[in-house]
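Predict the holo structure. Ligand: zinc ion.
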Amino acid sequence: MIMLKQAVILAGGIGARLRPLTDKTPKPMILVNNRPFLEYLIELLKERGITEVILLLGYLPEKIVNHFGDGSNLGIKIKYSIGEVTFETGKRIKNAEKRLDKHFLLMYCDNYVPIKLKELAEFHAKQKTLATVTVYTNKDGIRKNNIYVDKDGFVVRYDRSRKNPNLNGVEIGFFIIDKKIVNKMPNDNFSFEDIIIPKLIEQRQLSGFKVDHRYYSIGSIERIHLTEQFLKPKKVIFLDRDGVINKKPPKAEYVKSWNEFEFLPGAIEALGLLTQNGYQTFILTNQAGIARGAMSESDLNDIHEHMKQILEKYNAKINGIYYCPHGWNEECECRKPKPGMFFQAAREHNLDLSKTIFIGDDERDLQAGNAAGCKTILVNSEKNLLDIVKSILKLNNNKRNVNYETLFNSILEKYTKSCKSRYLVLIGGCSQSGKTVLAQKIKENLIKKGIQCNIISLDNWIIGLNKRKGDETVRERFQYKKISEAINKLKQGKKIYPPVYDSKSRLIVSEKSSTPLYIEEHGIGIVDGVVALDIKDLRDISDFSVFVDINDEIRKKRLMEFYVNYKKYTAEEAKRIIVPREVDEIVIIKKTKDYADVIYDPEAYTSDEKSNKNI
Ligand SMILES: [Zn+2]
């Protein structure tokens, strides 16, 4: 087994085909969903265990260097080898020779595929060639082939003009290269693809690692759009049908009509939960009953129509159904344990299978899921679909950290789809974490979009200092009942006059504000408060919730500054207030993170967002 820790990315070209996009921007910095494409590639490499990236630059190198620096923002080591714009690929690689590992991953800067790096390395070791290249099998013919891999895994033909009819795949980079190749390379200016690849083929030293997963590219303007769809963060679940969603018929029997279809306990609820939590769901099912004449395709479609109708009543949506109608002896590509249906669904919906979970119920499902590169979970007598879905949701609850852009877009998207007359967003989190700043920012951006928006600060319902005993928890300092009543009124379109709390004196200075608070029809109310997510009544009537989560050290520093600089307490006094409060924050408030749709850390993405603006 070889150790593959280093990736080398060819990122020095002018990107002539992408003009005018590349007039002032080097190709790898082209924005895809507002992030430079190269960021996605580096993230992919990091996830796959690569620890060092060497970027081979030529055209506008400073734009790339300024953005990525030493890579510490992305948690990976990034180094640069900068050459002339006129350097061809071979010279660029040769130029970096001294920094290269014994084996390294060589990539282009414009192709993305959820590469199975471990399998690639294993294949390379087994082939014992000096190099291995990744080849897209191109079963959907998205572009003309340019390479031929023989049955033993060796590349025997390579035709960059794509004219040879006798080819069986598309070369997409992701090479494993033995450094010996680079040592023997000349020092002059030459193309790696034109000179070295043919040589390797001739010496039977180039293997072809075939992948069925569709690759995505920014090689031309038309393709950037698809790539954008593909790289958009999304949550996807694939499901087997019989034995997962409905009761499995006995062996060699089939569910032939709707009256033979019986939902398994918890299945409807599970699918509803997935839809409500923003998951897309696809069913992939073997239905050999069709090949065996037990039922027709139209019988099957009829069953699925009925099934979808029932599910819709429970707000559960199935985004697509794929079935294999073939018998086991037909040797089709789609019958599980083969992964054909997975790749088809992924291609048709631009999905990343390495980020998809497949829930099945038998060994064939497990094999198919693994071959497709999905994470596979099986239901069994102890764990039904509902149990699995709940644990997936819980798991992902810890990972829903989003940047501001995603946060704002999710609010907007959910609002646009919602038919409610008044929409409610909750912003909760510990004190001094940045909730109010976030609420203001969202409000401003909503108003720019022409959406009426008001902020409802829960601080108005704090009990005044003069009415406290001093040992209240955060739940007692805020008047939960009054808050629920007030916000329910707002939701119904009524005007309210909340009490006015002065944070400096910590007193209620007026029982009734002079200006009313209301949410206009089709407007959005943003509830801003430490306890926003702790009040069940609010959670029940809200449409979207955010937990603002900031590093504790930063928060404590801010809290101290707030009391000392703004409220003019001495450091001692401030501590006396802050320390007991921390118990509240940790025991009560932090737990409300579980209720949030998304978690937002105002510090985590700032450098990222700033640099995006510079481009
Ligand atoms: Zn099939």
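The longest helix spans residues 571-589. The pocket of zinc ion is lined by residues 324, 326, 332, 334-335 (CB under 6 Å).
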